[in-house]
Amino acid sequence: MSAANEQSERCLRERVERSGRAQNPLSRVVNKAVAGKEIAGIPEGDIGVINRAGTWKDASRESDQDDAQDKQRMSTDAHETIIASHKTTSKGKGVRSWLPLACLCAVIASLWKLFLLSQDAFPLNADEAVVGLMARHILAGDFPIFFYGQAYMGSLDALLVAGMFNLAGTQAASIRYVQIMLYAATIITVAGLAWKYTGSCRSVLVAGLLMAIPAVNTTLYTTVSLGGYGEALLLGSLQLHNSFDAAREGLKPWRLLLWALLTGFGVWVFGLTLVFSLAAGVSLLQCWHRMSENRPGGVWLPAILLTGMVGASPWLIAGLQEGFPVLFQELLGSAIAGADGTGFRAAVVQRLVNVLLFGPTVLLGFRPPWSASPLAVWILPFALAFWALIATRLIRRRGSVATPTTSGTDLGWVVAFTFIGLVLTPFGGDPSGRYFLPLIIPLVLAASMAMAAREQGVQAVMFPGLLTITLVFHVLSTLEVASRFPGITTQFDPVTWIDRSFDEELKTFLEEEDLAVGYSNYWVAYPLAFQSNETLIYLPWLPYHQDFRYTNRDDRYEPYRDVVEQADRFAYITTNHPALDTLLERQFDQAEVDYRVELIGHYRVYFNLSPGARPWQLELPWLDMDP
């Protein structure tokens, strides 16, 4: 070692020993010579270089500095994570510090969701019913690779639900239990990220509570199942753990293999995981670029590719069967293409409006996903003030809040890739808030990093007070929408809002009239099949849009067709669609079909149909089929 390097390391050791920190200060540094030279030039008293694992007293000392010292700390951005303290490297002690808090928050979240379930706050939706039907078919020996009718979302959720059906019975609640467990695991992993980023139990608690009692949008899409959102969040948080540890401990080949496995698996589970996989991939690439020696070489590329293929094996098998172009189109949003503007430019403009205007308001809980009306308006300004202060603190004190560079990079890339994906693909044309769900992780971690240090003076009351009010806002806004029709729903089009309290009456009527099969719309057919244990099979061949738009994708399970076509008696069921009712009745009259009508809540049942009433016989304009 050269004299200059020896002097740099000696200087570093003296400064670390004065603070009572790590005995081997360069043990986790890849390029010790460069690190030593950089640290040797740090002014005495600059504590910004000590990373997130300082004690609470250290954090308090940081918050006590005046604005002049804040400016001095700004100079430490380039070297803020060079020194690893003893507390960071003591993994066992670290886990014992944050894990109980994380588990407590997971329990709080589970109890909150179970309470909402007890209040019937979440109406059963057709997508959730499809998951339940897939799980039942899996238990019967089938193995669908994808969610029925959507080749961009794998069947992992249905596999997990099938296991829960064995434990808790075939019911809608069992589907929700799986989501509750997945979200509890996600809370623990996100709390672990908060610990790694800051080393502060205070930060862990902030992240855990904001995840446990979140805004309406997060509560909704982490309680009901749409096929893979809960799994996507969990896989994403694991990707962030892997990339952070690689930056902190050094890039080992096995971490690249883990990234490839999670990425491939995530592509099959739900393409939404790519926003995390790409972000973690950028971080790992930066780690590789910074390494001066022992870089994983090109010999590892085949192993990385093979591992990714193992993770994505169900997706690859489906590609060989159905064609990879189809799967790539599905992955890029072909299933919802046409949801926005007609041309690409018009679509991009509409997506930008959705992302910039509707995205933040639904993500922060200021409105529900299905409406533009504000929630809990008397307390909403306090929640807005909380997030504004969080943003201000992160901007003004980014040098004094001891956040490792890699955390900001990872979270920033998650936001960036989410934005790019929403703007450039049809997913951004969906006005609901489900595709903004990945942003909840960067959001709560940003808040946890901003509040890692104890405040003094007015801020000692203001920040915890606003956090508490924000959590109360989440509770009140959730209860507000849960207490009124249509409940906490995944449906953003009012035409699809159905009063499910009449479902049992509808089932009883259909069974008494021997109307086991027939035709309806997507939002009626699959909930009816699931709730009746597939004794009532109705094909979703009727449109629910007021302009009669219809897609064959609604007809998701081909074996049901034979069941319906072979039956002698059948019915039509419509909901909230007077124009469709008028058209059906006109077609019945033209074909000289006799019929009766029964009204049950939002359901309108056409039954006792005389011959000639099949959809192809009525020449319904939205269908293009032969008998």
How is the main sheet built? 5 strands, mixed
Give me the side-by-side strand order of the main sheet. 4-3-5-7-6
The number of strands is: 7
Unreliable stretches covering 5 or more consecutive residues: 14-34, 43-90, 399-405
Q: Specify the helix fraction band.
A: 55-70%
- Rounded average pLDDT: 85
Number of continuous helical runs? 27
In one word, what is the shape?
Answer: globular
How far apart lie the N and C ends?
85 Å
Task: Please characterize this protein's 3D structure.
The chain has 627 residues and is mainly alpha-helical. It has three domains: 86 residues, no CATH class; 393 residues, no CATH class; 124 residues, no CATH class. The protein is built from 27 helices and seven strands. A hairpin with a 2-residue loop joins β1 and β2. α1 crosses α2, α16 packs across α17 and α19 packs across α22. The protein starts with a helix and ends in a 9-residue tail after the last helix.
What attributes does this structure have?
627 residues, mainly alpha, 3 domains, 5-stranded mixed β-sheet, two-stranded antiparallel ribbon, 27 helices, 5% strand
